[in-house]
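Objective 1b. Sequence-to-structure analysis of Resolvase HTH domain-containing protein.
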Amino acid sequence: MTVEEIAKKIGKSASRVYKVLDRRDEEQCVEPRKSRGRPSELSARVILRMGALTSSLKSTIRRALYEAGGNNRVAQLKPILS
């Protein structure tokens, strides 16, 4: 099976298939690498909880954000004085 056929079958680009095959040859592994960068501050539980609140009232969402340590305010701009 050619790389192009594999790419078409799985719905990815041929360059992506080549990258996976090269990684397999180098590291003898096709598992995804550990994500890099700063981890999210929100846990999966909090995200699910906030998703459940989206159908609730705005005040409920604001209260939940406040209890979680956040707020939903924007700083007021000072007037421009000439």
